[in-house]
Amino acid sequence: MVTTSLLKLLACPICKTAVSESAQSPEVLACASCNVTYPVIEGIPVLLADQAQATP
Ligand SMILES: [Zn+2]
After folding, report:
1. Burial class (CB within 10 angstroms; exposed 0-12, middle 13-18, buried 19+) of 37
2. Where are the domains of the chain?
3. SS3 string of the chain?
4. Which tens digit of pLDDT belongs to each residue from 4-43?
5. Rounded to whole angstroms, how far apart are CA atoms 30 and 4?
6. How many angstroms does the Cα of residue 55 sit away from the middle of ligand 1?
7. CA distance 44 to 35
8. How far is the CA of 50 from the centre of ligand 1 (A)?
9. Which of 11, 26, 30, 51 could disulfide-pair with 22, CB 3.0 to 4.6 Å?
């Protein structure tokens, strides 16, 4: 999981707004504005536009 203090520093690379931990999985960060998720690999959030996965 990603700590709250780290989450505050993170922003979506597409829209630059804050991302939040997904309700479905702690291994995913979600951007509500873009409706995409980003993977968290071994505790490291991968906030890259080409890693964005569209939320169904
Ligand atoms: Zn976004």
Report:
1. buried
2. 4-54
3. CCCHHHHHHCECCCCCCECEECCCCCCEEEECCCCEEEEEECCEECCCHHHCEECC
4. 888 888 999 999 999 998 887 878 999 999 999 999 999 8
5. 14
6. 12
7. 20
8. 12
9. 30
The reported pTM is: 0.85
The rounded Å distance from CA 56 to ligand 1 centre is: 15
Distance between CA atoms of residues 10 and 46, nearest Å: 10
CATH code, 4-54: 2.20.25.10
46 C-alpha to ligand 1 centroid (Å)? 13
